[in-house]
Amino acid sequence: MASDAAVQEAEAAIARLITAPMPPDPYPLYEAVRRVDRVYETPLVPGAYAVTGYREVSSVARMPGMRNGVRAAAMQREDWQEHESLRLFLRALVNLDPPEHPAMRDVASSVFTPHAIKQMRASIEELAERFVGELAEAARTGEPVDLVPALASPFPVAVISRMLGVPDDQGMHCYALANDWTRIWGGSFYSDEELAQADRSVLELRALFGELFRARRAEPRDDLISALVAQHEAGRLDDEDLMALATFLFISGFETTTNLISTAVHTLLEFPDQLELWRKDPDITVSAVDELLRHGTPICGTVRLTSETVEIGGKQIPPGRMLFLMTAGANRDPEQFTDPDRLDLTRNEGGHVSFGGGAHYCLGANLARMEAQVVLPMIINRFSGIEVAGEVQWRTSIGLHGFDHLPLKLTV
Ligand code: HEM
């Protein structure tokens, strides 16, 4: 039985975790909740549980009786149909439940295949060379370089743009529009002005993607937009699903990978012995990237709604309850990972849950891994010295862990 003080600490931790801005170091907060209970019913949000145990998060992600459409309820707005941005977001693959989810997931998996990802390898290497080269040019001036606008954002945007077939000169504009949109994805923590801006930006994004669909219908190419348009013509996607899937794939392609790259570089600076180890032994790259994904989880959690009574961590949970799956907390669970706060690039203790699990398991996990496996070694080997030089700015959106600004002094 937890003490009153421990319960108070857990409540304060949850209050902090669900209130913007996102704390720069959320990990002690998950630990405070887990100390009280690995599946903790919080009075702060009636009917909701915070799940912080690794075993419990992994098993919930795979349980069939879970629903994702909970995000619709989380929007807490009766007028969501009147907002372009909310309507399209709630049609995104990740927000669908059966029978819509497996149907759209089948289509998505039929175009976003392991083969399509493998084919991106040469492009990823070429783009990484280009961005790291530009970083080196900027570093030669002796001025600090901000890693996020210089590489961590535009590199994944360029990769997903090329994969989908968004022209190079439109990628960053679509990215800016997408950023206005994702600001309203985190629940109800946005202003009326942000919602109005999201609606305007989604309209523009729709027009740009609509134009791309028309162009590829007339003249298909070897890209994913052409493949999606073919699925639409075969009757496997309606107009709205085509738009929702294409725009969601575009955004998923950079939103979290940007966090992975910026957090990884920052984490390596905090563990210089591990940075040196990786420089000396390139063969650890695969486990190194997965350990960085575990240690600095780019999306800290997700939400599910129970649709039937389920048993989680020995507790019977009735239908209609909200579960906050705290993947970042699970990734630092000491019952799963030895000394979980330590970065150990050669760690071999089973998988992390950074890409979720079950029916909604991240479709782009291997694309994100490949990008990081290519670009991170290039960064650490191109620059003999890497230091934080100036004020860093963490992302403020709840649940997204990464940087808006990470100024670095780089020595070529
Ligand atoms: C480090 C980078 C990434 C992380 C940490 C990440 C994480 C996740 C997580 C946790 C989910 C599951 C959400 C849930 O269950 O509610 C997810 C779903 C998804 N991710 Fe990723 N992701 C990353 C990169 C990518 C990339 C590059 C793409 C490529 C387009 C992508 C496409 C998707 C899609 C389409 C889904 C929805 C799958 C579904 O609902 O069936 N992700 N991702």
TrEMBL record:
<dbReference type="InterPro" id="IPR017972">
    <property type="entry name" value="Cyt_P450_CS"/>
</dbReference>
<dbReference type="InterPro" id="IPR036396">
    <property type="entry name" value="Cyt_P450_sf"/>
</dbReference>
<dbReference type="GO" id="GO:0016705">
    <property type="term" value="F:oxidoreductase activity, acting on paired donors, with incorporation or reduction of molecular oxygen"/>
</dbReference>
<keyword id="KW-0503">Monooxygenase</keyword>
<keyword id="KW-0560">Oxidoreductase</keyword>
<dbReference type="InterPro" id="IPR001128">
    <property type="entry name" value="Cyt_P450"/>
</dbReference>
<dbReference type="Pfam" id="PF00067">
    <property type="entry name" value="p450"/>
</dbReference>
<comment type="similarity">
    <text>Belongs to the cytochrome P450 family.</text>
</comment>
<dbReference type="GO" id="GO:0020037">
    <property type="term" value="F:heme binding"/>
</dbReference>
<keyword id="KW-0349">Heme</keyword>
<dbReference type="GO" id="GO:0004497">
    <property type="term" value="F:monooxygenase activity"/>
</dbReference>
<keyword id="KW-0408">Iron</keyword>
<dbReference type="InterPro" id="IPR002397">
    <property type="entry name" value="Cyt_P450_B"/>
</dbReference>
<protein>
    <submittedName>
        <fullName>p450 monooxygenase</fullName>
    </submittedName>
</protein>
<dbReference type="GO" id="GO:0005506">
    <property type="term" value="F:iron ion binding"/>
</dbReference>
<keyword id="KW-0479">Metal-binding</keyword>
